[in-house]
Amino acid sequence: MGDVIEDDERRLMSQTLRRLAEELDGTALSAALSAFGYSELLACQPREAVSTLFEALGSAGSMSAALQDVLVLPLREVLDAAGHNVVLPPIGARCAGSLLGDTVTVRGLVIGARPGAALLVPVTADGQTAWARVSDSGLLSTRMVHGLDPALAIAEVFSTGASVTVVSTGQQATALWDDVVAAGRRALGYQIVGAVATMIDLAVAHARDRMQFGRAIGSFQSVRNRLADAYVAREAAAAALELAWAADDEFLAAMLAKSLAGRAARIAAKQCQQVLAGIGFTAEHPFHRFLARALVLDSVLGSAAELPSAIGRYLISAKTIPRLVDL
Amino acid sequence: MQVHDFRARLVTWIDEYGEQLAAPLEDGSVTAQLDHQRRVQRMLFDHGWMRWGWPQAIGGFGGSSILRAVLGEELTSRALVHTTSWSMHEVLGPAVAQFGRPELVEEIFPRLLRGDEFWCQGFSEPDAGSDLGALRTTARLHHDGWLLNGEKLWTSWAHHASRCVVLARTGQSGSRGVSAFLVDMDSPGITASPLQTMAGVDEFCATSFVDVEVPGERLLGDVDGGWKVAQYILSCERGPIFWQRGAWLAHHLGKLLDSVPDEGAAALLGEAYQLLWAFRARSKRTQDRIARADLPGPEASVDKIMIAAADQALFDAARELMAGVIETDDTASGLVWRREWAYSRAATIYGGTSEIQNDIVATRLLGLPRSA
Question: What residues of A are in contact with residue B371 (Cβ under 8 Å)?
Fold first, then answer.
């Protein structure tokens, strides 16, 4: 009986999150999720909260401050970080600034920002990771990024010489950064996989409806192979995400899941775009929004081009091939 | 038996008997490989390991098919058996146990598990590869049994096998007129002619059947019900077999990691590992399904595509990173790498080509109209 109620509650929770992600976007969605108690749900059931919401965000093409809830969670108790925004490294970089004395040079991205919140910045100090708090985001310059995916509303923050408080250093700071990275990679992985699913749905619908040479183009083998390729890549990422929570090395498992999600994004972007052909290249067709979302998120916290090397270096230093999960 | 207890006890046993189990590296021939397989299987049977995961009625100790997957994994991940010879009993065993006459299965199944006999699979034909339903081998009623005529191709180890599961036409054209039989390979009229693979291994055969008499009780399932048997076999191939092959690949990735542990190798090692991990994550779900007797349908095509991708990525990486080994190393270890690399070339071909798997994904999982 208890299980039935739990299942019902879980189903209701999933339905609500999906509906919100489909109907709302941006600040309205953030407010609705806050009223729903998303950050509390995240604290007690992280797996359900992250997998359901982020996949829904990806497939609906919406965005909210929930990413900040996810990034802040590992820092909440240790750094008293509730309500903060976490600054992520710029695309291709490993940290979001450097510390000299008590002034910090910052250059990073805030994705899904809570307006006006204080910032936590992972920076390098003497070659090591440290965390700096910027109590007032007004101390930094901010540029709203238009970029490839304007709807994502990324804020680029930068400053040379802002006065900050160093809140964590040494092993603790490194461990916290690893936890933030793993949590962020899982969430972004789900969001990418959701966007990939929509890219595939759009391309499949087109392949079924679009007639050429007297038949649906989805009956041509080259079209079928492209879509199967995208589907299998998505399934690979989905399987890796599902087990990212059960693996005995969560950092490695999250890195693998994000890498495979980015790989799926790249494969689907290429294959689905080709199947959607002319119409998929127009601004009018929704395809490009999902392509942009998936590719931009692929680049955040390590892309499918960067992560395989990082995974390989991890294996080289571990000197073993981890099984990660057992039957 | 709980899975983790089984694994813990098995690993202890392997640690104790590992030296006796170890495969001879110097002789890479099929005969040596199968002799070793026979010896290991006999030891595993005598110590009970080989019997877990099979029903008690046919000589097993019961328990879930997960136990068989774990046994294969712990053996292949130490290269104590070769992944291909380990697959034999897993490919055909479950289907014969399911569709064979109970008296027959009770008699022969323990012999299969003990390694006393090997079985082979007579499906493909010269004109029926991906289009298996076009097969032309016939089985005609003859006294109380059947008379088989036709030609099979790519029958692995037919020249070493005691029995063969043969698909033959008993009715109308197409897949609905096909029946399955368990045929003794020493029956008069069967000739198995080995073909060399590109790795120089005489692993598979062209096998001809000329007026081969097959007793009536050797029919598997129903007359004209052979397609169901074939589908069952293909589903089972995605079970413990895939799990142990994944472990075999992981073992080789480990060997590669040991031989080229430098930064320049990181990208290719990472790429191979992530594809292998994606397969393992996917396959875990499939193993759990099979253990619940919920056989995978079209979803298993995804597993097949994924393991083939991981297989080829791994051995492509090996060729790239161990400069010259695949091309010019004639030592025993070089031969092993070359043979495994060559075998990986067929990963997208055997057991249902990637084209067929993609077609299944497109039609059954994506809902695209059937191809023209």
Answer: 219-221, 224
